[in-house]
Specification:
The complex is a heterodimer of chains A (about 425) and B (about 90). Chain A is of the alpha/beta class. Chain A is about 35% helix and about 15% strand. Chain B has a 5-stranded mixed sheet, with helices on one face. In chain B, β3 and β4 form a beta hairpin. Classes of the chains: A alpha/beta (about 425), B alpha+beta (about 90).
Chain lengths: ~425, ~90
């Protein structure tokens, strides 16, 4: 049963058919999926969702497809981890990690958006899909398209981390590495999308793609027992994830699915070397000014964020704020999360934790309210970023004497 | 001041299919008025009801984004080149 009416321009409100369209001809603003909310209201309920599959598709009523899901049947529905040791370390009472570092099958939240985009791509009759990516999206499209039997062209900046490059190549896509930064890749992909009849998940399929991110918000609420947390810290590249988590909370609120009030504040986390959105928020300025990225957080290195203004608006509407961290603070964040909670996240996760720490220390986020950190990708993909700060193994010979000598254990009393 | 203005494909319907036009203006605000005078309807595509340049329209003065300059108050001189470029969607 389809609740997808069509597409609608975010700026002008003009309506468009639910095809592979993404920009309003009138004011060039992005198009967004438009649902028949009245029809959804008649069927949606907590019980209906709880009876759904243990994947992002349990929220199918609020996702932009016409038929049944065909891609990403095991994606999403990741753990919401109560982080007690990290909470103690940060001096807060109630902290959770939304752990998309283990999202199936490519270890990042991109599996959510790709599952939706490729399901829709197949519905629209595409046999070739593509994307412009800072890494995680590349991996995800490569993998899901391989399983779905679709041709795949993947565009990345040529300086991407090795883990992410191999993590795409293994699925045998056409992997195109562009000499330039992400914004250069994106600009080129717009031209290619106009010329070739391909489903670019984050260009001409963007209105469908972006809706997949709502499922992080839906899951957080459901996993907290149908309650909304007071604070969610979210990393920002294009800014899309921030806008969609907010949309998810508003949709659940609209349908009366949330127990208690929805007073969630959303916080934007970015890296020093690429913080156009956070800077605009912190300076309370009207414009989001583009920058040239230079940061170890390559997954967030979008200098000209397509949803920058909308993300800024969401932060303002929710009463949230923003934070910016240095490369060192990012590395510290990755280590802190691993060493307190056993979760190894990539640089974007380090940004999120680093900013959360700052916001808590500055008093922006109160210590006695529920906090969720959106951890969006896996650490093995960006190991270059931390390889110099995790130390080395202790090298010994294969005998007890060497072991005891090198570890200093012979001097301690820990012996039988 | 004679200013060259590059018109993006989606707006060329309004400029008689011309990709490049010339107008007289001493700042961006005047440039938009001037364009509107010669090509009626174009101002509404470029500006919102308050007269500000729309979010998803980028205007470059000699390759520099006017948001880094003085937005609508940015001064122009003879020989300057203006490019109107719709924002590009996409992003991770």
């Amino acid at each position: 049963m389809s609740f997808l009416k069509g597409l609608k321009s975010k700026g002008s409100g003009r309506e468009y058919p639910k095809k592979a369209l993404y920009v309003c001809e009138y004011d060039f603003s992005p198009l967004e999926a438009d649902y028949d909310y009245a029809a959804i209201r008649k069927v949606i309920s907590r019980e209906r969702i709880e009876q759904g599959p243990r994947s992002l598709w349990r929220y199918r009523d609020l996702l932009p497809i016409d038929g049944e899901p065909t891609v990403g049947l095991h994606s999403g529905f990741t753990p919401l981890v109560r982080a007690e040791r990290l909470a103690r370390e940060l001096g807060v009472d109630e902290l959770y990690i939304k752990d998309d570092s283990v999202c199936h099958p490519t270890w990042s939240f991109k599996d959510r958006v790709v599952s939706v985009a490729l399901t829709r791509a197949k519905e629209l009759g595409f046999d070739t899909v593509a994307c412009a990516s800072t890494g995680n999206l590349a991996n995800s499209v490569s993998a899901h398209a391989a399983k779905a039997g679709l041709q795949r062209y993947i565009f990345i900046p040529s300086n991407l981390e090795k883990g992410k490059v191999i993590g795409s190549l293994i699925y045998a896509p056409h992997l195109i590495a562009v000499n330039g930064n992400y914004d250069d890749v994106n600009r080129l992909c717009s031209e290619i999308a106009n010329k070739y009849r391909w489903g670019f998940v984050n260009v001409n399929l963007r209105p469908y793609y972006s809706e997949g991110s709502k499922t992080i918000g839906f899951e957080i609420v459901e996993q907290l027992g149908w309650k909304a947390p007071k604070h969610i810290v979210v990393p920002a590249a294009s800014g899309s994830l921030i806008t969609k988590i907010w949309k998810a909370l508003k949709e659940f609120e609209m349908f009366g699915l949330i127990k208690g009030e929805m007073q969630t504040k959303i916080y934007c986390a970015q890296a020093e070397g690429c913080s156009p959105i956070a800077t605009a928020i912190l300076n309370q300025s009207e414009h989001v000014l583009p920058v040239k990225p230079k940061t170890i957080a390559k997954s967030l290195a979008i200098g000209n964020p397509a949803d920058g203004y909308y993300a800024k608006d969401v932060i303002r509407d929710s009463g949230g704020w923003a934070g910016i961290v240095s490369d060192d603070e990012i590395r510290d964040g990755i280590k802190l999360l691993a060493q307190t909670e056993g979760i190894f996240t990539e640089t974007a996760g380090g940004v999120t934790l680093g900013v959360a720490k700052k916001l808590i220390e500055s008093g922006r986020i109160p210590r006695n309210e529920s906090i969720v950190l959106a951890i969006t990708g896996n650490g093995l993909k960006t190991h270059e970023a931390i390889q110099d700060v995790v130390g080395e193994p202790t090298l010994i010979e294969a005998n007890m004497a060497s072991f005891e000598e090198k570890t200093g254990l012979s001097k301690s009393s820990a012996r039988v | 001041m004679a200013i060259k203005v590059r018109i993006p494909t989606p707006l060329q319907k309004l400029t008689g299919d011309k990709g490049e036009v010339e107008v007289t203006a001493s700042n961006i605000k005047e440039l938009v008025q001037s364009l509107e005078k010669n090509y009626p309807g174009i101002k509404d595509r470029l500006c919102d009801e308050t007269g500000k340049i729309r979010r998803f329209v980028n205007i470059y003065l000699n390759e520099e984004d006017i948001r880094f300059l003085k937005q609508e108050e940015t001064q122009l001189k003879s020989g300057d080149e203006i490019s109107i470029v719709p924002a590009i969607a996409g992003g991770c």
